[in-house]
Amino acid sequence: MDRIVKHIRWVMLVSGALTFTMIQAAFAPDAALASTFGAGVDGRDAQIVVRNWGVLIALMGAMLVYGAFHAHVRRMALAVAGTSKLAVIALVLAHGAEFIGHQAGMAVAIDAVTVILFAAYLAATPRTLPAGT
Predict the structure, then answer these.
(1) What is the rounded average pLDDT of the residues 11-28?
(2) Helix and strand counts by DSSP (H, E) for the chain
(3) Residue 85 burial by CB count (10 A; 0-12/13-18/19+): exposed, middle or buried?
(4) How far is CA 106 from CA 81, 103, 112, 124, 133, in A?
(5) What sign for the dihedral angle of Cα 100, 109, 45, 32?
(6) Residue 42 CB burial class (10 angstroms; 0-12, 13-18, ≥19)
(7) Among the listed ranges 4-18, 50-64, 70-84, 116-130, which one has the minimum average pLDDT value?
(8) Which of the two ends of the chain, N or C, has the fewest CB atoms closer than 10 A to its terminal CB?
(9) Interior angle at CA 120, CA 2 and CA 80, nearest 5
(10) Among 67, 110, 111, which Cα is nearest to 87's?
């Protein structure tokens, strides 16, 4: 546990940077959906949803990077991003076994590892930080 606490900044930076790459969906929703799930975007309404999805995921990544450098928001960033990653894992595994062969499968594997590391950090650190940290 001490190693995770000691290196959480790097875990957050790497995870945040990888997560932020989904900003691609905001600019190229067809390409993002095709590479992640092997499916295309069908309709203007789906374009909006996929673009919004990309922005929201990118914001999770940005939050992780911010939390890596600002200890006072670290626990919140890990809890929110971890919950989001758990939701994606559960949804892909429950509804999209055919997507595992695409980048969604790699995302599930990486997200599972990061969720475990996030949870270990949260379990090993106090809920409140001393004043001045």
Answers:
(1) 96
(2) 6, 0
(3) buried
(4) 17, 5, 10, 27, 36
(5) negative
(6) exposed
(7) 116-130
(8) C
(9) 130
(10) 111
Main-chain phi, psi angles of 74, to 5 degrees: -60, -50
Tens-digit pLDDT profile for residues 60-100: 999 999 999 999 999 999 999 999 999 999 999 998 678 88
Task: Tell me what pLDDT residue 55 has.
Answer: 97
> What are the extents of the domains in the chain?
2-124
Among 127, 133, 129, 123, CA closest to 5: 123
Counted residue by residue, the chain has a size of 133
Residue with token string 């929201």: 56
Helices 71-95 and 103-124 pack at an angle, to 10 degrees, of 140
Using left for φ > 0, alpha for ψ between -120 and 50, and beta otherwise, residue 69 falls in alpha
